[in-house]
Design goal:
The chain has 2 domains: 3-8 and 54-236, Putative cyclase (Glucose Oxidase, domain 1); 18-50, no CATH class. Helix content is 20%, strand content 23%. It contains 6 helices and 13 strands. It has helices at residues 31-35, 102-112, 128-134, 138-143, 150-158, 186-194; strands spanning 2-5, 24-29, 46-50, 58-60, 83-90, 99-100, 121-125, 147-148, 163-165, 197-200, 212-216, 227-229, 233-236. The longest helix has 11 residues, at 102-112.
């Protein structure tokens, strides 16, 4: 078996939403400081972290977009939601700032001879991660990608998908994320209605396209959190 890392590195200076705290990873205790506390040759170091529960490669919990008081936080979701079968397709030909539609899904599924099964995670490659590191203009990161339409997200829900994963910071078309949008965040609205998760800021290599594999994306057990950074991996049979 082969493990493929699908996670972005969390580091200061990355792209955080304006209302999220800036990532800070700083020394809390150094080897030099701790060595003064012990006899003999022993020391340790530890780091202080500050980050949002939606920093980097992360999964949204249902209480992120479901306003009901009993909506599960990340620590309440069963682990089998994060250890699933998965398929991957390629939407890199869909123009930025437009919608990925059911016809795009059906084209890719048919092209690669895939089927979507109950309980699957559905990942889609767009090349967004690579594009952003070739061109670090923030506008590319925040605006230059396609997103799922309401009908496409409903299509995935109807076919049994429980988790959707993308390379961009959202599964949405970035033109539909404003208070004045006709339906703000239409794909998240479907996730809210259908109890689906979504996983964002992934690194999805082209080599995964057209394959079925195991997707492992275990979150931290953060009490009451609305999401969690994850170390996402694809497990391919040899």
């Amino acid at each position: 078996m082969e493990l493929i890392d699908l996670s972005q590195t969390i580091a200061p200076g990355g792209y955080e939403r304006p209302f999220h705290p800036k990532v800070e990873i700083s020394p809390m205790m150094t080897h030099e400081e701790s060595s003064k506390k012990f006899h003999g040759k022993f020391s340790f170091q530890a780091m202080r972290l500050q980050l949002c529960d939606h920093t980097g490669t992360h999964v949204d919990a249902l209480n992120h977009y479901v306003p009901a008081p009993d909506a599960p936080s990340i620590d309440k979701l069963p682990l089998d939601r994060f250890f699933t079968e998965a398929v991957c397709v390629d939407f890199s030909d869909v123009p930025p700032r437009t919608f990925i539609e059911p016809a795009d899904i059906e084209r890719e599924i048919g092209l690669h001879g895939l089927t979507i099964e109950q309980g699957d995670t559905f990942l889609y490659h767009t090349g967004h991660y690579e594009k952003c590191f070739r061109n670090p203009d923030p506008d590319v990161w925040w605006k230059e990608f396609a997103g799922l339409s309401r009908t496409a997200t409903e299509y995935l829900a109807d076919h049994g998908v429980l988790n959707i994963g993308c390379e961009a910071f959202t599964i949405e078309n970035p033109t539909e994320m404003f208070p004045e949008s006709e339906e703000p965040y239409p794909s998240h609205q479907v996730c809210k209605e259908r109890g689906m998760l979504n996983t964002e800021n992934l690194v999805i290599p082209k080599r995964l396209v057209g394959k079925r594999f195991r997707f492992i994306a275990l979150p931290l057990k953060l009490a009451g959190a609305t999401g969690s950074p994850i170390r996402a991996v694809a497990l391919l049979d040899g």
